[in-house]
């Protein structure tokens, strides 16, 4: 560890001159579904500075304009427009503004520990197109301070998740798994089982279990449930479908079983979630 890195201490300084626009999962419950704690855009000025020695969260920080400094392999490194500073949990990271520095960012909840939402082992600097993610975060914030319709906020949240995963998703994930989940999404209501899933990509159910545990941190059928609930959230945003119809469309013959599975994952029943969306 370099002397510079060794001297770093836990620091959270925003500063009076920094303007921040943020939305958290309390204001937008859909964020929690994607394990997002907080997202926002910061127009940072000195003394804006953060050091997290052993964070429980992971983070994506994207530079939109200006220049800041981020810690990479113990060295302060410029972070300019079009760069993303991606940091996993339990790994020291730090960043600060030396002048005007506009960034957008997402922090992910990594508790309980599992497969991290960012597919890097240490703080990493990537070159990306920053604007799709930034536009989605800004869209969510504008809806939050405006009409604040949960159905609309849920759609913005889904876009944020999609663009974030394009930046930091598991790029080395087995192509077989990607193909499998594409097939499942295309026929989400099918009576999926471990054996049927494994047969789709020509491996044993035990091999599939190991792959899913390694790349996703969950069992195959738990991931199927997650995909079904994501589809259900989209359908619940429309008042066109009844709860019974939605349960059938996502693979549940019994609406009570669907409601139980939904509440286990989301903390509220489908009907309660729909009411929250349209409040």
UniProtKB/TrEMBL annotation:
Pfam families: AraC_binding, HTH_18. SUPFAM superfamilies: Homeodomain-like, Regulatory protein AraC. It comes from the Bacteria. Keywords: DNA-binding, Transcription, Transcription regulation. InterPro entries: AraC-bd, Homeodomain-like_sf, HTH-like, HTH_AraC, HTH_AraC-typ_CS, RmlC-like_jellyroll, Tscrpt_reg_AraC-type_HTH. The keyword Transcription applies. One of its GO terms (molecular function) is sequence-specific DNA binding. Residues 178-276 form the HTH araC/xylS-type domain. SMART domains: HTH_ARAC. This is AraC family transcriptional regulator. It comes from Thermosporothrix sp. COM3. The lineage of its organism: Bacteria, Bacillati, Chloroflexota, Ktedonobacteria, Ktedonobacterales.
